[in-house]
Specification:
The chain has about 120 residues and is mainly alpha-helical. About 50% of the residues lie in helices and about 10% in strands. A hairpin with a 2-residue loop joins β2 and β3. α1 crosses α2. The protein is rod-shaped, with a radius of gyration of 32 Å. This is Helix-turn-helix domain-containing protein.
Length: about 120
């Protein structure tokens, strides 16, 4: 049976202290949302820096911080829909107006030249 690994106090470690993946997960994510297995998978994908020593895998809190920073999603502030609509709608109306006018001209010329009944 595997013996439990002691989680060191945060004051005992630095950002560059090598930690087993389980211990690093417990310290970096104290809410338990990440496990050692999750960190192992991230290391395998190349998302997390690690060292393999004696068949064991170690990482640092700095490596975890770099991984999280690289995956952080930046949210763009939303623009007011009125400002966006007014600028876009003028362009769209101009383009649609020109296209509609041209389509009506084509339809009218076809109605005059074709022998079929005129559309109502």
């Amino acid at each position: 049976m595997r013996r439990g690994v002691r989680t060191p106090d945060r004051s005992e470690i630095t950002a560059d202290t090598p930690l087993s993946l389980d211990v690093a997960a417990r310290i970096a994510f104290p809410d338990g949302s990440m496990s050692g297995l999750t960190l192992r998978n991230a290391a395998t994908r190349g998302d997390l820096g690690y060292a393999k020593i004696g068949g064991r895998v170690y990482t640092t809190l700095a490596d975890i911080e770099s991984m999280v920073a690289a995956r952080w999603v930046k949210i763009e502030p939303r623009q007011s829909s009125q400002r966006r609509k007014s600028a876009e709608s003028v362009e769209v109306r101009e383009e649609a107006g020109a296209a509609t006018a041209r389509a009506l001209q084509i339809a009218e010329s076809l109605q005059q030249t074709l022998p079929w009944k005129k559309l109502r």
